[in-house]
Q: What sequence folds into this?
């Protein structure tokens, strides 16, 4: 698992310094993300129609785990792969990551209030780094079955 996105060491420090505030509000941020997503991009509702309740909690936990492991992501690699499988099955595409990223930052601002540009840029870079990892892992999975259809990959079960 490589990460292509450029995040500066200063941004990493900013992410770590502000991670506790995100952690303390992670469920509110994740819930707000879904509200914003469904309001601004109603087409994404279909993705979550069959999703069991608790999705906001799982997303919140994932974001916290990510920020806590931002220096060395290897411990969360298995979790990333498990989530990536679900994304591929659901038909998530690279373009969706930009939409989610925009609404996630919006949700952070909605919940935590105005943040400095430095903080916002640092979290945008951190999100992009994670999104690039997911996109790469998911592209590899799609390629492995030779089709982007989400209903074939029995070997991932
Ligand atoms: C870096 C960004 C993202 C993170 C951290 C993330 C995280 C997660 C997590 C933790 C789960 C739950 C897995 C489980 O049930 O154990 C999940 C599932 C899901 N995600 Fe994401 N996700 C991201 C991006 C996206 C995008 C861009 C979409 C498309 C709009 C998406 C759509 C879904 C769907 C539809 C499921 C449910 C799959 C199912 O329940 O079968 N995710 N994601």
A:
């Amino acid at each position: 698992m490589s990460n292509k996105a450029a995040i500066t060491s200063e941004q990493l420090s900013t992410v770590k310094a502000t991670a506790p505030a995100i952690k303390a509000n992670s469920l509110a941020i994740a819930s707000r993300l879904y509200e914003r997503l469904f309001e601004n991009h109603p087409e994404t509702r279909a993705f979550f129609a069959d999703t069991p309740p608790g999705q906001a909690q799982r997303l919140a936990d994932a974001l916290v785990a990510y920020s806590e492991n931002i220096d060395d992501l290897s411990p969360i690699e298995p979790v990333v792969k498990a989530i990536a499988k679900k994304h591929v099955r659901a038909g998530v595409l690279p373009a969706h990551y930009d939409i989610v990223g925009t609404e996630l930052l919006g949700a952070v601002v909605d919940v935590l209030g105005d943040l400095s540009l430095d903080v916002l840029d640092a979290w945008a870079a951190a999100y992009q780094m994670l999104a690039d990892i997911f996109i790469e892992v998911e592209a590899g999975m799609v390629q492995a079955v030779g089709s982007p259809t989400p209903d074939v990959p029995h070997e991932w079960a």
